[in-house]
Design brief:
Strand content: under 5%
Helix content: over 70%
Number of helices: 7
Shape: globular
Radius of gyration: 19 Å
Distance between the termini: 33 Å
C-alpha cells in the first residue's frame, strides 16, 4: 500500500484538505467581522477532520484516477482539475444530502447520513466559494505527493544480464 505512496497520498489529502477548509472558513468569518482566536481554528479543524473525511477522501480518489487517466503531473492541470472536481463534488453531495434526508431511514440512518454528508452542508450557502479554492490548493499538494512516489518509466531501466 505504501510502495506507490497510497497511504501518504490519502493521509495528505485528509490532513491538508481538512486544514485548508478550516482555514478558509476561519478567514471568511474573520472577513465578515467576527473575531476568532486560534483555538476556534483548531476546533474547526478537529471537526472538519471528523466530518470531512469521507468527502475529502472521495475527492482524492477521483482526482488521482482522473489524473492517472490523463497521465500528467503538471501542477496547473491538477490545480484546475481540483477546483472543478471539488465544485462538482460539493454539488453532488448537497443533492445527495437533501435526497437522503428526505427519505426517513430511522434515527441511526439520519445521524449516519448527516455525519457523512456534513461537509457539503457546511460549504453550502455563503461558504460555497471555499470549495474550488480548497480543491485547487489540496490538488497541488496531492500532485506533489503523487509525483514524489511515481515510478520512473520501467522501459527506461536497463535490463539485467542473466550471466
Amino acid at each position: 500500500m505504501t510502495r506507490r505512496g497510497t497511504l501518504a497520498y490519502y493521509l495528505a489529502a485528509w490532513v491538508i484538505g481538512c486544514f485548508v477548509v478550516s482555514l478558509l472558513q476561519w478567514i471568511g468569518e474573520a472577513l465578515a467581522g467576527e473575531i476568532h482566536t486560534a483555538s476556534i481554528l483548531l476546533t474547526t479543524y478537529f471537526f472538519s477532520l471528523a466530518f470531512g473525511a469521507v468527502a475529502i477522501l472521495l475527492f482524492a480518489l477521483l482526482l488521482r484516477r482522473s489524473m492517472r487517466l490523463l497521465g500528467t503531473h503538471a501542477l496547473w492541470m491538477w490545480f484546475l482539475s481540483g477546483a472543478i472536481l471539488s465544485l462538482l463534488e460539493i454539488f453532488a453531495l448537497i443533492r445527495a444530502q437533501s435526497a437522503l434526508l428526505s427519505i426517513r431511514s430511522g434515527e441511526f440512518g439520519e445521524i449516519f447520513f448527516a455525519a457523512v454528508l456534513d461537509a457539503a452542508d457546511v460549504l453550502a450557502g455563503h461558504n460555497f466559494w471555499q470549495a474550488p479554492v480548497d480543491g485547487a490548493i489540496t490538488a497541488v499538494v496531492l500532485c506533489l505527493v503523487d509525483r514524489a512516489f511515481a515510478r520512473p518509466n520501467e522501459a527506461a531501466e536497463p535490463k539485467q544480464s542473466p550471466a
